[in-house]
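Practice record 12: protein with magnesium ion.
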Amino acid sequence: MYCASKLLIIYLGINDNRRRNFMNTVDTIAAISTGTGGAISIIRISGGKALELLNSVWKGRETHGKHNSRKMILGKMISGGEPVLAVYMPGPNSYTGDDIAEIHCHGGSLSAKNALEKVLSAGARSAEPGEFTYRAFINGKMDLTQAEAVADIISAHSEMALRLAEKQISGLLKNSVDEIRNGLVNILAECESRMDFPEENLDWTDKNTLSEMIRDSRGKTEKLLLSRKEGIVLREGIRVVIAGKPNVGKSSLMNLLLGFDRAIVTKIPGTTRDTLEEFANIRNIPVRLIDTAGIREAGDIIENMGINRSRAVIREAQIVVWMLDASSENPEDESADMTKHIGNEKNIIALWNKIDMMKNSSLPDTGFTSASISIKNNSGMDSFLDIFEKTVWGYPHAQGPEVAVSSRHASLLDEVLKELPEAAEKVLSEDWELAASNLRSAVNALGKITGQTADPDILENIFSRFCIGK
Ligand SMILES: Nc1nc2c(ncn2[C@@H]2O[C@H](COP(=O)(O)OP(=O)(O)OP(=O)(O)O)[C@@H](O)[C@H]2O)c(=O)[nH]1
Ligand SMILES: [Mg+2]
């Protein structure tokens, strides 16, 4: 259980108004929790006065209360208007842990806005973005990794990212971190007890066993860190730049991967002048796909500006798909041209296109991982995507991970790993004080992952990712 009072004290980093509101966990808060454009809008009210406020703005065949909690009842706003449904869900078995009331009215911005205004005039405060989930966190309904997973669910761009967030919400990551932390807390207690009662021959655990236990925690931490790449790619996506000479089929590939005609395609070299960026989901990998102006020496001012942009996005790319023309009379020149423009420092896939018009029986070795396709005939795409997937994950990747850490979790786990070898060393040399200090730092870093020892900046960062009403 994460104690509210402790967290109120640490919650001091958020900009003034927002911070003041967040710190106030007594107010009853309200917001429209649904996005615009839907058929139904939900006004969510959370806090000690949720029931009283609901009954003061809404009237149905029955009055809401404990006796009919969780029952959706048809009624009307007392101020008039269309029939609306309302439900009361008493805490602590609610999303926030507080009493919650919800009014489900017609979609469209006005109807929900009017209903919200009535709730606010009756005494509720407008909720800050993420404040409902923040309350769930301080009421011990979820730890910080689960709160983060709520935001991950909202921003998930692929089925695999969604599955990962769902597993995290169910507590899989929290349990793994807690398991490591609890193990270290036990070892720390042992070290502190040795410090406090050095003369007493208590039933100490053998120092070799303690060191072995630290090694075990280190192994578990390393195992979690192995999921860093998956975690970061699935949450943040990956920047993939399609580059190459003019007219090789870059924009055609962009359109094919997107499944719609985003970029203009013509047979005139130099068609694409600017970089085009679009989100795509390729083999379950969230990808920011960037089509670029074809790179060549001579061009007009506008084209040259486009080419400079191409070079800039190549520098920032995580993967570059460099396209080459397989129908060229001299494919060797294509390959030589590629090495002129591209260094070996990043993940590069050499992609021969237009194999339907190949004039030679084979293609030269580019020195990079290569694939060959014909966009026109839609052939070779599966092998290209196999290579793409292997380039992203480092191995063929059929299933999503059970647990995958984010960059925030990973940097804290790195801190843990830094402390543990020294802790083990100090335990073996019976330097209990220093061992305890290393262990304390490790335990503290693990607590920052789950929120037990989270500082204001972490909380601000996490909850500012939420939208209003969540
Ligand atoms: N035969 C053949 N033609 C293709 C293939 N892929 C693309 N093309 C054609 O090649 C031409 C150029 O395609 P784009 O996709 O515009 O090429 P690009 O690399 O974006 O060109 P720029 O924007 O000028 O740099 C168009 O006429 C396409 O229809 C292919 O696999 N086979
Ligand atoms: Mg183009």
